[in-house]
Design goal:
The chain is an alpha/beta fold and 486 residues long. It contains 15 helices and 23 strands. The N and C termini lie far apart (57 Å).
Length: 486
């Protein structure tokens, strides 16, 4: 793979095309590479390679050897840690301190966790009397679904890609990955690692491009793709769901969120501030699990707003390799324009701007980058667009509440239902609130803690299905029953 040319990875080979698009660094919006856009021919080749590997060396490989290769992947990712870190930060502009702590280690760990899991998952076994006075046994047997189309987002490119590729490969499937056009580098780099450790050709394929009339559409509508897993915005997920309906193919969709944090007056104040600051502003607010709505019990409201303001204003906005950088840029100029449009909407709707609300002053060489200020609002009604609609930027609205019933009604009054964070020392209240929140994951006195064995996914328009632990195996395998008459 040439340094400034990012190629498709098909059947173990890096493949150029006659159509290219720019890879830009969001710090300065400068072009830092050219990406080969896959057309229908390349997607067809990638799917054919994946099907051949499924029927050939990968499909016939013993589980122990498959696990051994996945563990070798983990070692090689860690050996090339700095390369993955550089690639991830070049694409996203996020602080190296963040990517080195979360993106790259978790990206590698996803292979290890699921390699361990497939070795130890039990199946069903039943013995039954038969009408002729004899008996039969029934047992469950898991086989791979087939070729998995993996559609990845740009906010945590390696982590969220391997979150799908890890269990898919552990279960014996093959994959065709379509990374975001904004963040193609680590998916391509992983192809080098696959070859290095000896993963058979065709097991892991990467096609670059866009959605409509490009790699995304060609992949999701391909009749030889047996299942589709997607993380991204709800509108795109709905399109993929429609495409998957042709052929009745299974889908796993993790989509948008407009997550609420609920802060009670009896909380550990410092922990609640630290956790809410992270959930609102980490990764420049580009986290599906992030917090954009904060509800604070009235006796604590003013103190909480003041502390959040102070914390947001202490965040240093800067470049990835500065160890003091607390927040990088947004992913692209397009997304910057979207987030700034919501900043304008909040002002029009009458929000009190506690802090931020615009673009920070940056050095001349960075002024064309995709920067925005961490932003906090108060004073808006629950009908306001910035309270109802996902922004996916470093911003939150903070509102007071008086009763549990009131805050539950407000927090649940949204089309999304991905996550929540509840801050209280009252354990009974914590259970009561968590169980009534219409979300896929409810944190209590924490945020972004993830045991990879637990189910992950969203309620309402935040998603379909669950991944993680045995729940990933339910999606990435077909469970058949074998009945034997004795």
């Amino acid at each position: 793979m040439v340094a400034d040319k990012i190629l498709n990875f098909i059947n173990g080979e890096f493949v150029a095309t006659d159509k290219w698009f720019d890879n830009r660094n969001p710090i300065s919006n400068a072009v830092i590479g050219q990406v080969a856009e896959a057309g229908k021919r390349e997607v067809d080749a990638a799917v054919a390679a994946a099907q051949a590997a499924l029927k050939g060396p990968w499909g016939k490989m013993p589980l122990a050897r498959r696990v051994e290769l996945l563990e070798a992947l983990v070692g090689e990712i860690n050996n090339r840690f700095d390369e993955f870190l550089e690639a991830e930060c070049a694409d996203t502009g996020k602080p190296q301190s963040l990517a080195a702590h979360i993106d790259i280690p978790r990206g590698a760990a996803n292979f290890k966790v699921f390699a361990d899991m497939v070795k130890n998952v039990p199946s069903e076994f039943f013995e039954m009397a038969t009408p002729d006075g004899k008996s039969c046994i029934n047992y469950g047997y898991r086989s791979p679904v087939g070729v998995i189309g993996v559609i990845c987002p740009w906010n945590l490119p390696l982590l969220l890609m391997t979150w799908k590729v890890g269990p898919a490969l552990a279960c014996g499937n093959t994959v065709v990955v379509k990374p975001s056009e904004e963040t193609p580098r680590t998916a391509a780099l992983l192809g080098e690692v696959m070859n290095k450790v000896g993963i058979p050709k065709g097991v892991y394929n990467v096609v670059h491009g866009f959605g409509p009339n490009s790699a995304g559409e060609f992949l999701t509508t391909h009749p030889q793709v047996n299942a589709i897993t997607f993380t991204g915005e709800t509108r795109t997920g709905e399109i993929i769901n429609k495409a998957a309906a042709i052929g009745s193919r299974p889908v796993s969709l993790e989509m948008g969120g407009k997550n609420a944090a609920i802060v009670f007056a009896d909380c550990d104040f410092d922990a609640a501030i630290e956790g809410t600051l992270r959930s609102a502003f980490v990764n420049c607010g580009q986290v599906c699990l992030g917090t954009e709505r904060v509800y604070v019990e009235r006796p604590l409201f003013e103190k909480f707003v003041a502390a959040m303001k102070a914390g947001a204003e202490k965040l240093k906005i800067g470049v990835p390799d500065d160890p003091y950088t607390g927040m990088g840029p947004l992913i692209s100029k397009e997304h910057q324009n979207k987030v700034l449009s919501y900043f304008a909407i909040a002002k029009e709707e009458g929000a009190t701007i506690v802090t931020g609300g615009g673009v920070p002053a940056m050095p001349a060489e960075l002024q064309d980058g995709c920067w925005v200020q961490p932003t906090i609002w108060t004073g808006l009604p629950e009908t306001a667009r910035v309270i109802k609609e996902e922004i996916f930027g470093p911003c939150c609205h903070i509102a007071p509440f008086d009763t549990e019933d009131e805050v539950l009604a407000k927090a649940n009054d949204n089309i999304y239902g991905l996550a929540t964070a509840i801050w209280t020392k009252d354990i009974s209240r914590a259970h009561r609130m968590a169980q009534q929140m219409e979300v896929g994951i409810a944190w209590v006195n924490s945020w972004f803690l993830r045991d990879l064995r637990t189910p992950f996914g969203g309620a309402k328009q935040s998603g379909i299905g669950r991944e993680g632990g045995v729940h990933s195996l339910e999606f990435y395998t077909e469970l058949k029953n074998v009945c034997i008459k004795l």
